[in-house]
Every structure is written in C-alpha cells, then in structure tokens.
Specification:
With 848 residues, this protein is of the alpha/beta class. The chain has 29 helices and 30 strands.
C-alpha cells in the first residue's frame, strides 16, 4: 500500500488546531439560575391549575368532548409518563361538572316473560328512591297480606261460604236418599265411595238374598238401581260443581282481601310516579301478578311450600325467585344520585363482563340459576351519559373486549351477554336483559404504535375514533414554562405533603428536565419522572437535615438513582480499565477510530466507547462490513455502512473505477448493533487506512454521514460524550482528549457538571463538525484538501492521499486483468480477453 512519505500532523495533538472552534463550557449545558425565581419557597406559590405543555392535546380533547356527532371518540397517544391519564381525567372531571347528571337505570321483572327483564329509566336519584319504595312495598306485603287472611271477618266469610256449600251439598244428598228410599234403596258409604244398594224392611239385601228372589224381581231391582245410579251421577256432578263454585267464591274473596291489602300501597306508588309511564306500567303488572298469586301467599301464611309439581319444577330450573316477594323488587344497576355532573369512569381491567356487565348465577339443587336481580352493571353503564377512559393495551389484551366495545359503540346500546353468547359458542339458557341505550365518549389511552396499527388494520377504528389527542414528551423552555414548572413542583409538594423547594432546588429540577429531553430549549413533560425526582429529593433533604429542598438535595437524588442503575456501566468500565475491552485514549493508529454507542437499559442509558477498525487492499469486493455479514447489524446500521461506498465513489473515483476491497468492523462486538451514528466513524477509519495517515486515539467520534460527506445529528449525544469521558478518567486525563460531535447536535448538549468543569479547565475538548473534511482534519492533524478544477486534490492532504491510493488500486486491478490474458491476444481480440473485460465490469459494478 502506497502512503505519503513521513506523514506528520499539522499540529501537536492538543486538540486546538483546524478550522473547527472548540466548544466553550457555556455551550455544553444551559443551566437554570435561582435568580429566575422570585420566591423564597415553593410553599408561597399558587398551586398549578391545569396542565402545562400539552396545548395541542388539550385542544383535541376539548374538541372531542364538545362535538356530539357519532364516531367522535378519542384516542390519546404519547410516550409513557407524559401524564396522559391524569391530564385527561382532570380535564374531563372539570368539564363533566358542567354537564347534566345522567339518568338512573334499573332492571325489573318481566311478569310475562321472566327470561327477558325490562329496563327502566328514571332521573338521577329517582332510581334509588323507587328501589327503596319497592323494598318497602315488599316488606308491607309480607306483613299485610298474611294479616288480611288472619282477620276475623275473613274467617267468618270463609266459614259462611263453606257452610253454604256444605248445606247445599247435604240437601242434594238428602233428596237423593229420599228418592232412593221411596224406591226401596239405601245410600251406603263404602271405602270406594257412596253406593246405592237395594233394601227391604230397612235392611240391605245381600247378594245371597238377591239371588233368592225370582228373576223378574231381580230384573226390576237392577233396572231401578241403574236409574238411581244415573241420578246419583248427576248429583255427584252437581256437588263437584258446587265445590268449584265454592273455590271460586273463596278465590274471589282472597283476591278481594289481597287487593284490599295491596291496592292502596300500589296505587300510592302509581300516583307518586305517574309522570313515568314505564314505572306505572310495571306497577300495574306487579299488581296483577300479586292478585294471580294469592294461593302462594296463603301457602306462605299457612307455613306451607308450593306443592304443585309445575311450581316445584320451575323453582328447580331457576325460573322463579327463591323468595316469592323478590319478584316485586327492582335491581338498581346505575345509581347517579351521588354524583355531580356527568360521570368520568376509568376502567383498569376492561374484560367483557367489566365493560358491558354480567349476569351472575347461584347454585341451587345441583344446577345454576339466575334472575333479574343478579344482573350487574359494567363500565359502559357507569359511564353512560359521561366519559369512559380505558388503557388501549389493557383493552387489546382482554379476550374479545375490543370487539364487544366496538359493537356497543356502533349500535349505541349496551347488550349484557357473555362472550359465548355474543359469538354463538354457547347456547345455555340464560337471561336476555333488555338493551340499554348508550350515549358516552370513550377515551382510549395508549402509545402511538398501537394507534397507527389500529388505524391501518381495523376500518372500524377509523370510523369510531376520529379525534387524536397527541401528547408530546417535551415543551418549549421559556420564562413562562419555567415559572409553571415551579408551580407544578409546589402543587406536588402540597398534594403529597413533601418538603418544599427553594429557588436553587427548582432550578436544578428545570435543568434535569431539559437533560431528560436532551435539548437546551425544551423541558420534559414526562411529569411522572419529575414527580419521582421531587419525592426522592424530599427524602434526601430529610436525610441531610434540610427544611427545604436545595440544589444539592436534588443532585443527591439524581446521583443516587444513577448509582442504583449503573452496575452494568461500571462493570464495562472495569473491563476497559483492565484491558479486557480494548480502548486507546492516547497515541496515533492508522485505520482505527474510537466510536461511541449508547446502551439503553430501559430506565437508564449510558455511552460505551467501541474501537472501529478498517483495512483496505487491492481487490474488487468493495466495502465489506464484517458485522453486517455476521448478521449483527440492524437495518439502519447496514444502511449507514452502505452509504460509505457512495461517498468514496463520488468523492474520489469520478474518472476511474472504484476497485478496492475494504473490511470494517466494530471490534469486540458480541451483540446486535443498530443505528447509523457510527457511519462517520467508519468513514474516518477507511480514509485513514487509504491515506496512511494515523488517527488520534485521544479523540472519540459520533455522527452519521450522507453520501455528500455532511455529518448528520444523532441521538444520545450527552451519554456518548460522558461515556468517553469516563474512560479517559479511568485511563488518565492527558489534557488533549475529547469528542467530535455533529454541529447540528449543539442544541442537544446538556452535559453533567463534571464534564463541563473539565472543558472549562482545558482538560477535555468537544468539537462540533459539519463535514467529513472538518472531522478528518481534526483527527489526523492534516488538511483535508479541496477538490481542484481538474478533479484532483492537493498533495499532502488527506483527500489527495486517498485519491492517489484509489487510483493506484484501480491501476493494479487493470494491470492484473491484463496479466491474466493469453500471450499474443493483446486483450483486444476475442475469446479470453473479452471474458476478462467482462469480469472487470462485473467487479466494478459490485464495488459501486
């Protein structure tokens, strides 16, 4: 490999050379001063009323609850911890107070078809009142009806009816007996009943005596007996009719007695609820059912049980109440008597029964039975007329809950049924309660990925959830928002009885909030994490004996949390210090650059330096990334690597084929890597390998690159800088060490105080770069070199050396191709030379 003769850097490696100005300490973090606040303690601040930093989302919520057209339900999306649930709930509760209180709902017995209970709708508070009235009615029935049957007048009238019909039956027997005696017969009582027997001289003729009579006399007696038996049959029928008439008279009397006992009770309720036609209808049906069941009431009075087989069978099958009087009670499933405004319901376990209600069962006689009083309300009932909030992840992970909810919203009614019934899987006999009209707003709360998934795969979602409330994880940082942040801190301290903050403590909270979003001009709206920091700061203030929370207490809370979460980071640093993981922080090496990756652990992220190396040599394979070939690279990482060939070809191989072989790798990589922030690092390693100029090992690099050599911003810039700084401290600070970052990441710098101090003292250096040329100049100490009009680069520059090396490799490839040709054919004729030319063409195409 050809390389420049005696490549010497333009400058010593003090990190202050080149066209890029080093960042000052003031550019590395935008602090917050206690002077920004004019209070002594947050205890003196007014509590924060409302939500800060979510104007777009709140306008969407306001629109969604204001529009009453079908299908305008809401989906609130945003990162976890942005306070979506709390924010929306507070907003809804405030709006709900101005809304009318929805009606109560009850289920009552359907006396015509007990399997289909009827739904009653009453104004808020009337449902509870009607339930209590019916309970009192039932208690009155339990006492008044039995008492009516025990009255002296009732017993006398029953006795009179019985006496009357006994006398009438007795007269019929007497008349029959007289006719029989006049014809020589007597009525005889036998175990089989009353018999008509012939008699003479007052004595019954036996069979022997009948046989002693002559045939003519016997014939006459038998003919007379048959006639009397016909008359007796008519008497029996008349007596049975008299018995039926007596029972009817008794039943009519019982109805009058029961009617007298209950009519005034029910009529008073009818008068009270005359304005509600469904209630009046139910009371009339209940009154009729009571009059039909007088015999059951009498049996209860007499201490008996229903003995009719049909009644016993129905009791066994669960078609009747275990108690006769419970049929006249009501089941209040929605009671809005104690709420103000519309209800706001948060359903944390949105299973099908918890959403649409359920029908409970009771074991009886070895089987399960139910009735209308075992109907239980669901979240749709409780939120009807108001708002229902559901976490979408919980909803989608409950079997069939999403389908059942969609069905209810589309049909605008609540149908209480099990999953098996809804999808035709179970045909067991059960209740079919009357559906209840549905009028509410459903607010789904979830992350953006689920919103877009549902939007694309479920057409019903687009029709039902037409309002998107998009919660951001950040807001602008300005004097107004910082003052609101202080009021937010004050509010949390009051609500949770925590110590209050002084201005320095609030200023440190604001700084940390900006650090959370890695932006100097933004603040985090992930208030769940901020609340945790407030709580932990209060704890450490107590440990430190402070009455108010100061900046050092907040800093202690931050440091302690980092310590609790950073075990893996410390272990990796130990491995670097021991030499298990190879990282150089001084010296110069060709084709070797320090890159920095971010390792996210969910609740903690940190930067980890990695050695990236490149080797270049003659060949036609192009740029080969070992990690990609080993399937350790993700798609974005692989894309970043493939961009390098485009940059090399467009920058250096305008007039010649890019015929090189190069291998790249992240050394000691044993897990998958993703992201393109290493693409500029890999390009620096390639340029160093091609030019022969060594790279400073006291510098680390991060940033992605495009095909034009522009360095693009990346994520995790703070963690990456701090990660390399930690390694430099472990191996020894030399004063020349530093990091190259994309110039576009300046606004994202919120570095920790120890890094800022090191930069201020000149012990660490951070350079913002915009192009690869700026970066390679800093890393090699050599000018990158600008392209001249003829397409070449000046001698002694990095670009000139790279271009010369690429031309050399192209010439070697051409010469090697001629060498393979057969003697005498010159490479321009047919046969073998054509094949060689074709091969080179294929190689060049692959290289590009």
């Amino acid at each position: 490999m050809s390389s420049p003769v005696n490549p010497q850097p333009m400058n010593p490696h003090k990190g202050k050379s080149g066209p890029v100005a080093e960042l000052s300490a003031s550019q590395l973090c935008r602090g917050s001063s206690p002077e920004e606040f004019d209070f002594q303690s947050t205890e003196s601040l007014e509590p924060l009323d409302g939500v800060i930093g979510q104007e777009r989302a709140l306008r969407a919520v306001s629109f969604g609850i204001g529009i009453r057209s079908p299908g305008y339900h809401l989906y609130a999306l945003g990162p976890v911890g942005t306070g979506k649930t709390t924010t929306i709930r507070k907003f809804l509760e405030k709006d709900a107070r101005s809304q009318p209180v929805p009606d109560d709902w009850l289920y009552v017995n359907n006396f015509n078809d007990p399997d289909r209970p009827c739904a009653l709708r009453l104004p808020a508070g009337k449902g509870r009142e009607f339930r209590d009235d019916m309970d009192r009615l039932v208690e009155d029935l339990k006492t008044d009806v039995p008492r009516a049957f025990e009255s002296k007048e009732y017993k006398q009238e029953i006795a009179a009816i019985e006496e009357e019909f006994q006398q009438r039956s007795k007269r019929l027997f007497q008349e029959l007996d007289e006719r029989a005696r006049s014809r020589g017969f007597r009525l005889v009582q036998t175990p089989q009943g009353v018999m008509i027997a012939p008699a003479r001289n007052g004595e019954i003729l036996t069979s022997e005596k009948l046989n002693e009579l002559d045939e003519k006399e016997r014939h006459r007696i038998m003919e007379t007996q048959r006639g009397l038996q016909k008359e007796a049959l008519g008497v029996w029928q008349r007596i049975q009719q008299l018995q039926r008439e007596g029972k009817e008279r008794t039943y009519d009397l019982d109805r009058r007695v029961v009617g007298f006992a209950v009519d005034h009770l029910i009529n008073s309720l009818k008068e009270k609820y005359a304005a509600y036609d469904p209630v009046s209808t139910f009371l009339s049906e209940a009154q009729g059912a009571i009059l039909k069941n007088v015999q059951a009431f009498k049996q209860i009075r007499e201490g008996e049980q229903p003995h009719q087989p049909q009644q016993m069978l129905m009791a066994l099958m669960g078609d009747r109440q275990s108690s006769l009087f419970d049929e006249y009670r009501v089941n209040l499933i929605v009671d809005n008597s104690r709420i103000e405004g519309a209800p706001v319901v948060l359903e944390s376990n949105p299973t099908v029964p918890n959403l649409v209600g359920r029908i409970e069962y009771q074991g009886r006689f070895g089987t399960l039975v139910t009735n209308f009083r075992m109907i239980k309300a669901g979240a749709l009932h409780q939120g009807n007329g108001g708002y229902l909030m559901i976490e979408v992840n919980d909803l989608l992970t409950r079997s069939f809950a999403w389908q059942i909810l969609k069905r209810a919203l589309k049909k605008e009614k609540i149908v209480i049924e099990g999953v098996g019934e809804a999808f035709g899987a179970i045909t067991t006999r059960t209740l079919k309660p009357e559906p209840i009209p549905l009028n509410l707003k459903v607010i789904l709360i979830g992350d953006p990925s689920l919103y877009y998934l549902l939007y694309h795969v479920d057409p019903d979602f687009q029709e039902l959830y037409k309002v998107k409330a998009d919660f951001s994880d950040r807001m602008d940082r300005n004097p107004e928002t910082t003052q609101k942040y202080a009021r937010f801190v004050s509010t949390i301290c009051r609500e949770e009885s925590l110590k209050h903050f002084d201005p320095s403590g609030v200023a440190r909270i604001v700084e940390h909030s900006a650090r959370m979003v890695n932006h100097q001009d933004k603040l985090s709206t992930k208030f769940g994490d901020i609340v945790d920091l407030i709580r932990q700061s209060s704890y450490w203030a107590g440990q430190n004996g402070n009455h108010v929370i100061r900046a050092e207490d907040v800093q202690k809370a931050i440091e302690e949390k980092i310590y609790r979460l950073s075990r893996l980071e410390e272990r990796l640093q130990e491995m670097i210090e021991e030499g298990t993981i190879l990282i150089d922080t001084d010296g110069w090496v060709v084709g070797q650059v320090n890159g920095i990756s971010v390792i996210p652990l969910g609740d903690y992220s940190f930067g980890k330096p990695s050695r990236i190396t490149a080797r270049t040599f003659a060949g036609s394979r192009g740029v080969v990334n070992i990690d990609r070939e080993a399937k350790l690279g993700g798609r974005i990482y692989n894309k970043g690597t493939m961009i390098l060939a485009g940059y090399l070809g467009g920058t250096y191989a305008g007039n010649v084929p890019l015929t090189i072989s190069a291998s790249l790798t992240l050394e000691q990589l044993y897990e998958e890597v993703e992201g393109d922030s290493a693409s500029s690092v890999e390009l620096y390693a390639l340029l160093s390998s091609l030019s022969g100029f060594p790279i400073r090992q006291d510098m680390a690099v991060t940033g992605s690159v495009n095909q034009h050599g522009e360095v693009q911003p990346i994520g995790g810039v703070n963690e990456k800088i701090e990660g390399f700084f930690h390694v430099c401290r472990l191996k020894g600070i030399t004063g020349s060490q530093g990091v190259l970052i994309p110039q576009k990441n300046l606004k994202n710098l919120m570095l920790r105080e120890y890094v800022v101090d090191a930069v201020k003292e000149g012990r660490f250096h951070i350079y913002p770069i915009s192009t690869i040329d700026e970066g390679i100049t800093l890393l090699t100490g050599r000018r990158a070199g600008k392209r001249r009009p003829d397409g070449t680069y000046p001698d002694g520059t990095v670009n000139g050396a790279v271009q010369r090396r690429i031309h050399e490799l192209a010439e070697k490839a051409r010469t090697f191709g001629r060498y393979k040709e057969k003697p005498g054919e010159g490479g321009t004729g047919e046969g073998e030379s054509d094949g060689g030319e074709s091969d080179r063409g294929e190689c060049n195409e692959r290289a590009f």
